[in-house]
Amino acid sequence: MKQTSRLLRPLWRGLPVVLLCLSLSLAAAWQYLRYATPMYESTAKIKLADVNEGAMNTTLIKNLDAFSGTDRSSAEAELVRSPLLLGRALDRLPFDLSTYRVGKLRTTEMYRASPFRVALTLRNPKWTEKAIDLRIDAAGALTLTAPSGEVVNGRLGQPMQLTGAEVTITRNEEQLKNRPDVPLADHYRLVQHDRGQLIEALGSQLDVSSTDHNVPVLRISYQSPVPQKAADLVNALTAVYLDDYLATKYKVVNATSQSIAEQLKTVRRTLSHSEDTVEQYRDKKSIVNIKQETETDLHKIAELKIQRANIQMSLAAANDLYRYMTNGKDHALALAPNFEAFNDMLSTDIIKKIKDLQAEKHDLLLRFTPEDAQVQTVDLKLADLNSYLLESIRNTRTSLTIRARDIDRTIRQSQGVFAGLPTREKDLAILERDFQLNEKLYTFLREKETEAEIAKATPISYHRVIADGLVPTEPTSPHRGFVLLVSGFLGLLVGSLLAYLIAGVSATPGDAYSVQKEASTPLAATIPHLGEDLEGQLAFFKQLATRLALKGFFVPGSKLVVSAFSDKEGQSFFFEHLQQALVLQGLKVRALVLRDATSPDPDAQPDELLLIQNLTLAQDSHALAVMTGAQANLFVIDSRTTPTARLAELDLLVAEYQLPNVQLCLNRDGYDPGFLRIAARRLRRWTRRAPQAAAEPTGLSLPAGLDLQA
Predict the structure, then answer these.
(1) Which is it for strands 559-564 and 609-613: parallel, antiparallel or unpaired?
(2) Which element (helix H / strand E) includes 572?
(3) What is the pLDDT of residues 257-281, one digit of tens each?
(4) Which residue among 72, 428, 458, 577 has the highest number of C-beta atoms inside a 10 angstrom radius?
């Protein structure tokens, strides 16, 4: 909170500067608003025709334009602001000649509110965009001054000849009847505009935009110092745009309809020829449906190839099994063949019998020798079964080989059907593609022929004006509230910057925190603003004397010097009140006030405290010598009058001259009365300055006024 208060203190002190800048800024803004020419804006809106609108949802022009852009609203906006449409709009409006009423501070364009009518024939093209001065008196006499300086006099209704122009001025009876308060006799100015420059100026001030990319609505806005002029231009431009759209549409429709009729004759003959060509080719090649026939043959071949692959895998397994059994026939009983691809019921049964006989032989060998008849009988049975199994494998191999050969022959026969198929497909595809293209083109042209006939029969523009340009009543610029707000803000900003700048240039410590921050000399005491209560002042200084005594400042036989930079920092106030407080506490005090360099500067007696009010440093450098001879120095600074930069100066003096035991006393610590209190106090001082000047000061009486501390 204290930190925030310190930051805002310069702003509070500089409040008069801030208020002055704010007042000047608002006054400047008010003068600007008073004399600035107001601009009025009128807006019209056009909803563009949708491609799905209109009779039978015709899209004739869009489909035929292969190079049309996708952002139609942007293209239409460029068309509206084009010189072509602006020129056509100007043909309907009296913009080529401007009439102005010349006032002392402002020249105002009258437009349709002119109390007279002008017929101007300009023969000198150099006079375009130049003013012809006109004065009308109460009797109806006219005085024309050409841009070249030529002066011609005449009367209302009388043609007046200039070197480069002929001018006829007549009364506008309708306007004079509607506005009898507007005088005819006045000072006027006539300006004939160049059409090219006028179109360029209008185009630069015209705003044509789309409200949204997804919404085909054009917004046409124009600003002018004359409200009626702004509304007339946007309304004339929308009318010209709709007329141009309708004329262009039917010009294109008529040309397109004629072109379609001629193209249909050629396309009809080409389509008939394509139909005959496709029919003859199908009859010649006996083609019913190439795709279906090809799919059937391909499916058949795929199945045969799958069968051949299965047979080949089975044959390979049988060959491996046969070689395995043949190579191991001498020890067939120890073999364990793989029957993964040879697993019919008969083979499985034989293998089972062989395993049973092997188990039986093992049992017999436990009781008999291998030469025993029973063991020999089992061996014979095993040999027969092995021979039978081997022969079965051989027969299976032969059967699989024959089947694989038959399937290969069938596949070759089926693949023979595809000989020449790509050529037939290619030729038929080319013929059918030509036929389809001709058919699509014929269908498209027939549709467009119908749409063109419908469009010719419906002379309607599907662009619609959804908002006419109204005559504005309030200006769009300058915006009074916004200008005042910005001016006030800038005034406050500049005033605040100046306040902080002034506070930085004439900065004072303000409080003990700032003193300790800026100075390396220790702070012995702080004296708040004590007001004009004498009893309160003495009570505070009694407490202050006690605190200083505890710090060792009041040792008998020592000299204590009270110094200051100037006499505006409360040195006398501090010295006199400290003296009284020490006397009231019973100390033996001898007080001296040095008036100049010749004033005596004795040493203290052993049983007394010598209290000296030193010369100010700004008055005489002898004050440094007095401070050097003291045992303790109290240097008084003021929170509102001592410049902050002088604190560093004091530190340099203490270091350079080796001043003994120098400590600061801050007068009016944290005192920030504000602008109003300062003004009231100064007024009070001014009113009682004379009586105080008449009074004679005596002795060491307390100074009245000052705040009592400055």
Answers:
(1) parallel
(2) helix 571-584
(3) 778 888 888 888 888 888 888 878 7
(4) 577
